[in-house]
Design goal:
Layout: E1 2-3, H1 12-21, H2 25-33, E2 38-41, E3 45-48, E4 53-55, E5 61-69, E6 76-81, E7 93-100, E8 103-108
Length: about 110
């Protein structure tokens, strides 16, 4: 099985105060938001960080999403396209979105 590693999230010096001020809500929501990301892939399919297993034959479409931060780092634009081989622009994030009737899986790269 191929392990999928995510980029490090927000450093602890930011997460800890946010966790204390929100009574633990920020770390909980962060973990909850990561459950659709891929944990590992093998020849059978994909396992998400939430523990859900998807077979390769279950996926109905694959799209590529590139997130771009605009001027002043205020505006986030996400460009979703069917072109999987388009060159990487000045994207802050780049991922494949795998769609299935059971849900969605995000594979970042």
């Amino acid at each position: 099985m191929i392990e999928v590693q995510l980029r490090p999230s927000v450093p602890g010096c930011v997460t800890m105060p946010l966790g204390c001020l929100s009574l633990g809500l920020v770390p909980l929501l962060t973990r909850w938001g990561e459950r659709r990301f891929a944990r590992g892939m093998d020849q059978v399919g994909v396992v998400t960080r939430g523990g859900q297993r998807f077979a390769w034959s279950e996926f109905t479409s694959i799209k590529r999403a590139q997130g771009v931060v605009g001027p002043g780092r205020r505006v986030l634009q996400v460009h979703v396209t069917d072109d999987l081989y388009s060159p990487t622009t000045h994207a802050t994030s780049d991922e494949y979105l795998l769609w299935s009737p059971k849900g969605r899986v995000s594979v970042t790269f």
